[in-house]
Amino acid sequence: MQINKIKLALGLVAGLSVAMPMVASAAADQEAAMKDANNWAHPRGQHNNQGYSALAQINKGNVKNLKAAWTFATGVNRGHEGSPVVVGNMMYVHTAFPNNVYALDLNDNQKIVWSYFPKQDPSVQAVLCCDNVSRGLGYGDGKIYLQQNDGNMVALDAKTGAKVWSVLVNDPKVGATNTNAPHVIKDKIITGCSGAEFGVRCFLAAYNAKDGSLAWKAYSTGPDAEALIGEGFNKDTPEYSALSVYQDVNGGNKQGGSFKMIPNDQLKIGEKELGTRTWLKPQAVKDGWQHGGGSTWGWWPYDAKTNLVYYGTGNPSVWNPDVRPGDNKWSMTIFARDLDTGMARWGMQMTPHDEWDYDGINEVILFDKGGKTYAWHHDRNGFAYTWVAESGKLIAAEKVHPFVNWATGVDLKTGVPNKLASASTHQDYNAKGICPAALGTKD
What we know:
Layout: H1 3-9, H2 28-34, E1 85-87, E2 90-94, E3 101-105, E4 111-116, E5 138-140, E6 143-147, E7 152-157, E8 163-168, E9 183-185, E10 188-191, E11 203-208, E12 214-219, H3 224-227, E13 246-249, E14 258-261, H4 274-277, E15 302-303, E16 308-312, E17 333-338, E18 344-349, E19 364-369, E20 372-378, E21 383-388, E22 394-399, E23 407-410, E24 417-419
Antiparallel strand pairs: 1-2, 2-3, 3-4, 5-6, 6-7, 7-8, 9-10, 10-11, 11-12, 13-14, 15-16, 16-17, 17-18, 19-20, 20-21, 21-22, 23-24
């Protein structure tokens, strides 16, 4: 059987993909592999995150005849949320906890060439939110990269499975775990953090592919220096850096209270240190932002023209909104960062002072039109967003369905949603009829 038949039978979809230009980097082998549609060398196919294959053997005319070619049982009976990686005749398959990895030879009846079985403390399963999943593998520089649930990221020799290096990214003892697919871009491996449910302060981090050393780490909350926010951040969209976007109604953070948009001409824009100044008292622990959540678990596109990587941050912590007054930046935010330095080019908070656990981690997808690159994102909050990718200028933010009822719309200049008082939720109050629920219109 042809290799591309096998890949498609395992679930890779047919469609259109865009090959990225060759990059002089440690991951030149990944870039070369991504040019061949018979490979699937990236968790989402290509750096644009579109998740499509250019293979055309399966199409709308014959898909009804599709049948299983073969199966491979992993022996792990939990969620499997990431695609295999395919390079040449090799397919790399991973599992949910304990995150086993198998290398299968597609030219030899799917023979197991090598396997890797991590030795993880089973107690980590107690702090894994939403199933014990792993969302994929990375490939590049002759290595397969696995982000284990216990916080360790390992680089395995793609030919032998031997461990080349390992680095501890997160500590489960404080509630921080990992479920994301490592993303190989040029000479760096991008990884993130899960654990907002447990009051973890999350981040996006880049490690050097050669030896696993830390290149940069950008926190979702906290001082600008630790969030890697500097001069030039939101220079084209200073409205995104407003000190506060809502005024309290009937007490705000208490039962019966709600929030109203501050008129645009009254916003204090272009402000700094918003990752601390928008976490107001009283927090349950310290100053709030130290345990501010903002999980980052994928998937992350990259634009070689601007050297920007894009991602979303998750819900603020703790869930109870009444103990964290303020916008709670930079949770619930889409960021664009320079791959080499980690410095933020722009960031827009989609759900300021989240009251419903809407998260913001759904994938960002890049596409080109009219000579420009755009970033598109369907958020759990029920709105679909489109930005000019380089500048962050918001050009569309629409409800995906009329049943979205927590806000009437989004201001295109500020990105601020117009919340409805009827949707506010509070401690000791059973809110009903709010749409979407925490799972979102897309998860």
